[in-house]
Amino acid sequence: MTTPTNNPTATPGTPNASNAPIIAPSILAANFAHLDREIEAISNADWIHVDIMDGHFVPNLSFGPDVTATVNKLTDKTLDVHLMIENPEKWVERYIEAGADTVIFHVEATNNPAALADRIRELGARSAFSLRPGTPIEDYLDILEHFDEVLIMSVEPGFGGQSFMPDQLEKVRTLRRIIDEKGLDITIEIDGGISLDTIAAAAEAGCDAFVAGSAVYKAEDPNQMIQELRNTAAAVR
Ligand code: DX5
Ligand code: ZN
Q1: Would I find Cell wall biogenesis/degradation among this entry's keywords (predicted)?
Q2: What is the pLDDT of residue 99?
Q3: Which of 3, 44, 122, 165 is a Cys-bridge partner for 223, taking CB atoms 3.0 to 4.6 Å apart?
Q4: Residue 117 falls inside a structural domain
Q5: Distance CA 214, CA 92 (A)
Q6: Low-confidence ranges of the chain (pLDDT < 70)
Q7: Does 153 map to a domain?
Q8: Which residues are annotated as a binding site?
Q9: Which of 27, 38, 51 is the best mutation target for the ligand 1 pocket, counting ligand atoms within 8 Å of the beta carbon and taking the most?
Q10: Catalytic annotation, pick one of 101, 148, 191, 208
Q11: Is 148 among the residues known to form the active site?
Q12: What is the pLDDT of residues 129-173, one digit of tens each?
């Protein structure tokens, strides 16, 4: 869980209070043999995005609650935990105990997203849903009040390092319009293929938070890349 950090741009555990772009590096792209160093290398991040893959909902495996708890011990930053798993109902409590500040589940993996969101909030975390690129947003617009964040996938979930899908920005524009019309306090985050080449378009469409895996970890200086991504998004917003 989050405690205050020394990062002046961070807004731990809360939505986009300062209205500055939130940069959330994905540790999926980190070297797991040196997790402590890899987390230290992104000290300029606002949040840390934690990708959980179960080999069923997506055809790839990453790690589970124990590694999430280890990450939580290594940092005070907000943990934005993206569950790409079947049966998220069975797991949300375990991930919140492990230190998840925000729990993101996939709507394709549950029959009752509003109820699951309410449970996540009752357990003390921020609630979020995500959708595969092929899943329309329209079916979920009437349950937005149950959520603190929506994660738009701009790649097919399962792997880092894929190409950004610009057509997914239409969902961001729809969401931005509805959230603003209803006056809701919901963070719009985007995940997949975010880099210096794509972040401006995502910011322009209305995203508040930006996941970046390979762009950050493949950079020579990850902290500098985080700053460049932040500046690029801020210039548009
Ligand atoms: C994909 C994951 C992403 C991924 C992002 O399933 O949800 O968070 O790690 O990686 P890049 O930024 O490399 O596309
Ligand atoms: Zn993710």
Answers
A1: no
A2: 98
A3: 44
A4: yes
A5: 27
A6: 1-18
A7: yes
A8: 26, 49, 51, 82, 158-161, 191-193, 213-214
A9: 51
A10: 191
A11: no
A12: 999 999 999 999 999 999 999 999 999 999 999 999 999 999 999
